[in-house]
Structure formats: structure tokens, C-alpha cells
Specification:
With about 130 residues, the chain is α+β, with helices and mostly antiparallel strands. About 30% of the residues lie in helices and about 30% in strands.
């Protein structure tokens, strides 16, 4: 089992995507990545700042049969960081239905709506089947 996740920003043609953790360099901090993201989105109006966190889980069994499961969490990139919780891009990722960033919303909301949760919900039946067989 393996997974990969990333932030896809429509106005940046899906970037940073799989390079989210190292968007501003190989040893980039979360803050450095946020600063670069906001710099690249400078001047982009709110209606064009749609983004999503996407997670793909890959699962393979010993016979080589494999499965892919995908989850996403839709949002909008804000213009400045807000909130103290979370990590990565959470302080600038606004969840429209809550009117808050993921860093403001906290772990209960994040764990319920996250891209990883969505992918794992799909993968869980296959994981159980493979582990119990």
C-alpha cells in the first residue's frame, strides 16, 4: 500500500501537485511553500483561486492485482495565512462550506472531509478483503 497527496491549484494548471512539499525547493518549509504559492497567485481574483487537495492510494496484492483509490477536498486559496492548526497549505486553504481555512477549522472537520479520508474510505473494503483472505 502506498499513497501520495498534493495540492492542485487551477490557476496554476494543477501545480504544485505532487511537488507540493518541495514547491519552493528540496528543503522547503511550509511557510516558504505558502509564500511562493501566494506570490504565484498574486493578482488572481478570488473566483479563479479554486484548488483541491488530492490523494491517491495504490494497493497491490501478492498476485500483482492492483487497485487505485482517489479522494479530494475542494477549496479556494486565500490571500494570507489564517489559523494555527494543521500543516502544509492548511492556513491558506479555505473550505467554502465552513468559511474557514483548514488551519482554522481544526482536526475534527479536517479528518471528516480530507482528501486522505475520502481515498481511505474507498480503499478500506479492498484492504480488509486482502488482509482477511
Amino acid at each position: 500500500i502506498a499513497d501520495d497527496s498534493g495540492l492542485e491549484v487551477d490557476a496554476l494548471d494543477g501545480r504544485p501537485g505532487i511537488y507540493s512539499a518541495r514547491f519552493s525547493g528540496p528543503r522547503a518549509t511550509d511557510l516558504e511553500n505558502i509564500i511562493r504559492l501566494l506570490e504565484e497567485l498574486a493578482g488572481v481574483p478570488p473566483e479563479r483561486r479554486q484548488a483541491r487537495f488530492r490523494c491517491v492510494i495504490a494497493l497491490a496484492d501478492i498476485t500483482g492485482e492492483h487497485f487505485l483509490f482517489e479522494g479530494s477536498c475542494e477549496g479556494v486559496i486565500g490571500t494570507s495565512p489564517k489559523g494555527e492548526r494543521g500543516f502544509g497549505y492548511d492556513p491558506v486553504f479555505i473550505i467554502p462550506q465552513y468559511g474557514k481555512t483548514l488551519a482554522e477549522a481544526g482536526s475534527a472537520i479536517k479528518n471528516r472531509i480530507s482528501h486522505r479520508t475520502q481515498a481511505l474510505k474507498q480503499a478500506w473494503p479492498a484492504i480488509k478483503r486482502l488482509c482477511l483472505s
